[in-house]
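task queued by scheduler; priority normal; single chain, no ligands, no partner chains; default sampling; output format set to C-alpha cells
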Amino acid sequence: MLELNAVIFDMDGLMIDTEPVGNMLVKTSHEKFGYKITDDMFVHLIGSNEKTSKEYYYSVFGEDYPYQKIKDYREQLRNEYFKTHPIEVKKGLYDLLEYLKKNHIKMAVASSTRYKRVLSNLKSIKVDQYFDAIIGGDQIKHGKPAPDIFLKAVELLGVNKEDALVLEDSRNGILAAHAGKIPVICIPDLIHHSKDILDLTVGCYDSLDQLIDVIVKKDDKA
C-alpha cells in the first residue's frame, strides 16, 4: 500500500483518451504543408509542452519550418473534430477521483497541454471540481522531462514530495517525476515502456481504478 497525502494526474492519455486523436491531427496538419510525422516522432513528443515541441520541430525540419501555420491548421482540425466527437474518459477515472475525495487525499492536474485547454477538457468531462490545483504546460519554464510542473504541483498542494504520487502514461512524464524525486505510477496508453523506464516507477497498472486498492491516506500523526 502507498500512504499518501496527494495524487498528481497527467491529463492526455491518462485521464482522457486523446492521444490517438492527437496523433491523427499532428500527422494530417503536417501533411497539408508537405511534412511527414512518423510514429516515432509523435511518441517522442508525447508529454512535451508547446515550447519543447516547437524546438523539436525546428531541430528536425529546419529554420524554414512554418510552425505557426501548421499549428493554426491543427487547431482548426481539432475544433472541428471535437464538435462531433465527445472526449472519451479513460477507464476507472471517476471511481478513483471519488475514492480520493472521500479519503481526503489532495489532487492536482499537471499537464503539458496549455492551461486554458486543460481547464476546458476537465470541465467537459465534469471533473474540474475535484482538483485543488491545475497546472498547464504554458505556466512553467521547462516542460517534461524536466520536473518543473510536478514540483509546482507539490508546492501548490502544500505536501512533501515523498507523500505525493504522480500518475503518468508517457515516458517524458515518468522521467519528469523521477527527476523531481516524486514517486510515480505508470498507466500505459499508446505504448508499453521498456524496463529501464518502468524501473523508475513504483508500479504499473492497466487502469486507474486498480489504484483504489493501492492508495491510502497517510496518517499525519504517525
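post-processing summary
- The beta strands are 2-4, 6-9, 106-110, 133-135, 164-168, 184-186, 203-204, 215-217.
- The first helix runs from residue 19 to 32.
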